[in-house]
Amino acid sequence: MTLRWTSCDRLVRRMVSWGEARGVYGRWGMGVYLLGKAYGGYKAGEKTRELPVDGIKEELVAHGQAGQFYRHLHFHIGCRFLGWPGWWASWFMNQVDERQALTGRGESAVEVKDNEAAWACAEVLKERSQRRLTRREAGEKLREIVAS
Question: Does residue 23 have a pLDDT over 70?
């Protein structure tokens, strides 16, 4: 029997590795790295690609938001790892998404859910970096947040 990893499984494994950063400076460095991933393609003018999302909750990738889901995770987890300045940036960007969602824009409603999932993931990863959770426990919690 061959084990087949879904996109969700690969994402959870990758996120658990992000939580291996130790201490304040380790989390800060990981935050900068994740922000670079979120905005590297954006600055280069790359369009968001359709990325595989098999196994990920439908409400997080609806309205063609497959590529944006990953960008939102990178941005909001990265911001949370930066401490209070990043929290403010994350909160501000969420306010923009919420305002757009109130106008009836379906993509923005999905983005707000992505933001909330990213914040929950960031808390799990912070606990992992502080060694309050094992790799397995962190993986299980992350899977509960993003897996369908």
Answer: yes
Token pair in block for residue 30: 């990981």
C-alpha to C-alpha distance for 92 and 96, rounded to whole angstroms: 7
The 10 Å Cβ neighbour count of residue 120 is 17
Q: Is 125 exposed, middle or buried (0-12, 13-18, 19+ CB in 10 A)?
A: buried
pLDDT, tens only, 28-40: 889 898 888 888 7
Closest CA to 125 of 41, 5, 4, 11: 11
Q: What is the pTM of this model?
A: 0.87
57: helix, strand or coil = coil
Q: Which residues lie below 8 Å from residue 90, measured CB to CB, with a gap of 6+?
A: 75, 76, 79, 80, 115, 119
